[in-house]
Amino acid sequence: MGRSAAFFDLDKTVIAKSSALAFGRPFYRDGLITRRDVVKSAYAQLMFRLGGTDEQTMARTRDYLAALCKGWQVEQVRQIVAETLHELINPYVYAEAAALIEEHQAAGRDVVLVSASGEEMVRPIGELLGVTDVIATRMTVRDGRYSGEVEFKVEAVSELAAVRGYDLADSYAYSDSYSDRPLLECVGHPSVVNPDRQLRKLASENAWPVLEFRHPIPLGRRWRERPAVPVAAAALGVGVGVAIGIAWYGRHRRTRAATTA
């Protein structure tokens, strides 16, 4: 028997929103995203929604976003994330997820965050949660700027398990999206969190536990009030999220303009 691990999807499983959605506004504010980018990314997000969340669609969307980020200074992106992390991410961490992560760590399991979002976003969020292992998307960097090429897409969990010696039959996985079916099916203890319709049906067919996370609470407050939300009581969710954030910000600006007109 090898070691066991717990794999957590990030967006809408550990945090109550898209990780990159939170950073869409500061990216726009700092000039990384233009109005033209807003329109193009909104269209890409629409195509993503209409086309579903299969692997091919995810790959196309990641490639588009890699091209969008071409020329961005890596250090500028990291600085934006660092400056806004506690304001834009910390309040949206599910208390149930934080407690569950702590339970797995207390049991001696490695906890791994899995996300299609960029590593520059995912790793600082992991540090906020006390998680050092992340599987995320990387892009090629030349002279301190993104080249527009994807160097490393989301790594297969099975590959990491082989390197670390994890016993996947004794490992856990949590996700809110049907697109993470391969992740859920490769472990012995899958659970779905705030699942979409397809994933809820799949969970029913396989008798997987369905968890409902409903309490996003800042980590500092959760630690002060521990135990805030027992996990047992909850048991009865630069990547794709960038397009969501850009599209949302474009709609937000148009709505404000219409309101003030």
Topology:
Elements: E1 5-9, H1 19-29, H2 35-51, H3 55-68, H4 74-88, H5 95-106, E2 110-118, H6 119-129, E3 133-142, E4 145-152, H7 157-164, E5 172-175, H8 181-185, E6 189-193, H9 197-206, E7 210-211, H10 219-224, H11 231-234, H12 240-260
Parallel strand pairs: 1-2, 1-5, 2-3, 5-6, 6-7
Antiparallel strand pairs: 3-4
Helix pairs in contact: 1-4, 1-12, 2-3, 2-12, 4-6
Explain this structure to me?
This protein has 261 residues and is of the alpha/beta class. Helix content is 51%, strand content 16%. The chain contains twelve helices and seven strands. The protein has helices spanning 19-29, 35-51, 55-68, 74-88, 95-106, 119-129, 157-164, 181-185, 197-206, 219-224, 231-234, 240-260, and strands at residues 5-9, 110-118, 133-142, 145-152, 172-175, 189-193, 210-211. The chain has a seven-stranded mixed sheet. A hairpin with a 2-residue loop joins strand 3 (133-142) and strand 4 (145-152). Helix 1 (19-29) packs across helix 4 (74-88) and helix 1 crosses helix 12.
